[in-house]
Amino acid sequence: MNESQNIEYKQTWKDEYLKWVAGFANASGGKICIGFDDTGKAVGLSNARKLMEDIPNKIVNYLGIIADVNLLQKESKPYIEIIVSPSGVPISYKGVYHYRSGSTKQEIKGSALQQFLLKRLGKTWDDLPCENATLSDIDPDAISYFFKKAASCKRLTNHNGKEDLRTTLENLNLIIHGNKLKNAALLLFGMKPSKFFPSVSFKIGRFITSDDDLRYQDFVEGNILQMADKVMEILKTKYLVSPISYEGLQRIEKLEIPEMALRELIFNAIIHKDYTGAPIQLSVYNDKLILWNEGRLPDDFTIETLLGKHPSRPFNKNIADVFFKAGFIESWGRGIAKITNGFKNEGLNIPVFETTMGGIMVTIERPDNDKKSNIQNNVPDNVPDNVPDNVPDKRQISILQLMQANNRILLKELAEMLKVSTRTIRRDIDKLKQMNKLKRIGSEKGGYWEILEKNFIS
Q: What CA–CA distance (Å, rounded) separates 434 from 328?
């Protein structure tokens, strides 16, 4: 039998193999067979009886655990079998932690070690106390915002938001050791969470032709409970298009990406982020959005697991609990299903999920620009083709509509959507400025459009 996740073969015993024993104990347990080559062929042991005395003592003395050590025979050749059970507490060898993964042993370091130790203790990173934080670091307005949301969804029945700050946080299980604020408390309700955790931000960037063609960007900071609202507002006003159409005389503006599904994706990124890593990043391109947050799936999850029916296993359980009480998420692991159904219901391709670069990346395909360019066809029919000099024509109204949907839209993008040259767009914009309908605020690269008269696009 070949080596596997639960079986390791060694020809002779060396004390360094205690690392393998610790690795099995820290994983799902396993078996070490001494007296076999790597292919599983018995080669025997000349000092088997002495090792039967030494190995159990060394396991106890160095690792603090007990393993079953048996002297057996195969093909008349003696060998030793060490059966290691999974440990409920972390096991180290000389201060170093090891873990059995697949058929190899790995040394656990850095943030992976921290997460491993917390998991074995039944805790998550947001459970830890923030040593230098006090109640003065908590924003009362964020607390009020939470209770307003919680009341509207009726998920808090025994809190009225009138308790003192300490009692409120204790009731939300956000105080530990009697008086220490948990990391989660500062992330959720802190006046300035970045004071304690530098990566608490959400980066949004607009790219055109390539990743080095960054045209403008935004950084959303502050508490994570209100972060999604801020991100959505910026996306709707600066980065995404809400094509305008008419049903009879009723004007319809609908975000190009299903809004509830997009909000759910943002919630997921915020809740399941590893806050010891890099900021959340959302890159907006002409044809797609790419959302990435540092973090990882639960140990026994794959992308396929995530896309199917699965239990809720939050990376940050305290944060997830507050988001649930605020009515932002469910507690049944239905978030991904809500996202995929949101795209399917709009006839759009579902986002692509993948694990990469130490995090989770979601690629969202933007609707065809041809659909967005149809906006000029939705101009009310009562706008004549030949209009007075001080009244915008159909194409100029389309320009104003697109600018209202995205006040940082580029001339090149307008030309592509309206299927005309950039020179034509520039000429139309000059006319709109002369008619006092439009104004440019700031530079061509970093500024935005301000519509001065909206009668023609309402």
A: 47
The low-confidence residues of the chain, meaning pLDDT below 70, are: 1-3, 157-161, 245-246, 248-249, 369-391, 455-458
Per residue in 284-336, pLDDT (tens digit) is 999 999 999 999 888 789 899 988 988 888 999 999 999 999 999 987 788 89
d(CA 145, CA 141): 6
Q: Are 258 and 235 in contact (CB under 8 A)?
A: no
Query: What CATH fold (topology level) applies to the domain 202-365?
Result: Heat Shock Protein 90 (3.30.565)
Alpha-carbon gap, residue 227 to 159, rounded angstroms: 23
Distance CA 245, CA 251 (A): 6
7-122 belongs to which CATH class?
alpha beta
Q: Helix-strand-coil percent breakdown of the chain, rounded to 5?
A: 35, 20, 40
CATH number given to 376-451: 1.10.10.10
Domain with CATH 3.30.565.60 in the chain: 202-365
Q: Between the CA of residue 246 and those of 116, 142, 366, what are the distances in Å? A: 55, 39, 22
Strand 77-84 vs strand 30-34: parallel, antiparallel, or unpaired?
Answer: antiparallel
Instruction: Give CA separation, 194 vs 15, 23, 129, 198, 358, in Å.
Output: 46, 36, 16, 5, 21
Q: Per this entry, what is the length of the chain?
A: 458
**Cα atoms in the Cβ-side hemisphere of radius 13 Å centred on 178:** 0
Single pTM value for the model: 0.69
- Letter string b/e over residues 115-140, b meaning 16 or more CB atoms within 10 A of that residue's CB: bbebeeeeebbbbeebeebeeebbbe
Q: What is the pLDDT of residue 371?
A: 46
Q: What are residue 411's phi and psi, to 5 degrees?
A: -60, -40
Cβ proximity of 190 and 236 under 8 Å? no
Structure tokens at 438: 């439009």
Residue with tokens 């599983």: 40
For residue 190, the 8-state DSSP code is: B
Query: What residues does CATH 1.10.10.10 cover in the chain?
Result: 376-451
Alpha-helical runs (H) found in 98-209: 110-120, 140-153, 165-171, 183-189
Listed in order, the ranges of the chain carrying CATH 3.30.950.30 are: 7-122
